[in-house]
Design a protein that fits this description.
Layout: H1 28-32, H2 37-43, E1 63-69, E2 77-83, E3 91-95, E4 103-106, E5 108-113, E6 120-128, E7 136-142, E8 153-158, E9 169-172, H3 188-199, E10 203-207, H4 220-235, E11 240-243, H5 259-264, E12 279-283, E13 286-290
Parallel strand pairs: 9-10, 10-11
Antiparallel strand pairs: 1-2, 2-6, 3-4, 3-7, 5-6, 7-8, 12-13
Length: 313
């Protein structure tokens, strides 16, 4: 397959969890029975901050908000989001408290046009550097054409500790979306996000096959949007570190199919011409390595899927 460089003596104190006011404990029984009538109703409406309204017409209002670690998790975090239309002057306000030592970080815009339905997707990435280790920060996202500018999106995160220290992380893959009209989506997806929040980890590992947009080929951006808005209840408060799987390979979206994934995520650089496909990061004395394993695929992904124009048998 063609390669495209363009595309694609420390204190041992436990890390304090970031309190997410949207989260609440999820029992094992509730998690496993999430596809009941009440469960599906809740799952169809991913948690969003109270008081937030959706714009009647597409604009630059931030949505699908998620965090990733930068090059040093104790000192750098990347805040990423999307908007339904191109944002004007997208920016992040950062500070320990609003108006106290606040700094403004301009976001970098990354876009792509879906190769099947022609929709242009607008994403934004604010790189936060020179942070202090094991410190709680509050941030605000907005734009000049943010319909919620009077009450912009506000959240918080904690940087990783420096040096040897205990911390907690969670991990799963194959999340999908809670919108059950999409292929391979299911109601428990919303409860899985809530389960992460019940543990209040420092970060979460998202291990491939993120949303199965490639199995919904004519509406891939819409599937990604439902996935991102579902995850936002947790991913806006703590880094969710993804690993691409075979279902991130999409028809007509780049020579390797990863244009959508690579546009939406900003990840620690791997020092090669192919950033985002694999990477590593260190928290304290633990090294985490994310490896993509799509060189050979014998499952329903990439070249082994019939494609959007395949005949029905």
């Amino acid at each position: 397959m063609a390669r495209d460089p363009k595309n694609d003596g420390n204190d041992e104190k436990p890390n304090r969890p970031v309190e997410n006011p949207l989260a609440f404990p999820v029992s094992r029984r509730r998690f496993l029975t999430g596809t009941g009538a009440a469960g599906l109703a809740a799952a169809a409406s991913p948690l969003v901050p109270s008081g937030r309204a959706h714009a009647a017409t597409p604009d630059g209002t931030p949505e699908q908000i998620h965090l990733t670690w930068g090059r040093d998790p104790s000192r750098s975090v990347i805040v990423s989001w999307a908007s339904a239309a191109q944002a004007v002057n997208p920016r992040l306000h950062l500070g320990p408290h609003p108006g106290c030592g606040e700094r403004i970080v301009r976001a970098l815009q990354k876009t792509y046009t879906d190769g099947l339905n022609g929709q242009t997707v607008f994403t934004y990435h604010a790189h936060l550097e020179d942070l202090s280790p094991d410190t709680l920060y509050q941030y605000v996202l907005t734009a000049d054409n943010d319909s919620n500018a009077a009450q912009p999106f506000t959240a918080s995160f904690r940087t990783a500790p420096a040096g040897r220290a205990p911390f907690r992380w969670t991990s799963f893959g194959d999340l999908a979306t809670p919108v059950t009209s999409w292929v391979l989506s299911y109601g428990q997806s919303a409860f899985a996000v809530q389960a992460v929040e019940s543990f209040k980890p420092l970060f979460h590992l998202l291990n491939g096959d993120l949303c199965y947009a490639n199995l919904n080929p004519h509406v891939q951006p819409a599937v990604w949007a439902d996935f991102g808005n579902n995850n936002q209840a947790s991913a806006a408060f703590r880094p969710w570190m993804p690993c691409p799987g075979n279902h991130e390979v999409e028809f007509n979206n780049g020579p390797q199919g990863f244009t959508s994934y690579l546009t939406r995520y900003s990840l620690p650089h791997n020092g090669t011409e192919f950033p985002g496909r694999w990477y590593s990061f260190r928290v304290g004395t633990a090294l985490f390595i994310s490896l993509q394993a799509d060189d050979v695929i014998y499952q329903d992904g990439a070249a082994f899927v019939g494609g959007p124009a395949a005949p029905s048998w």
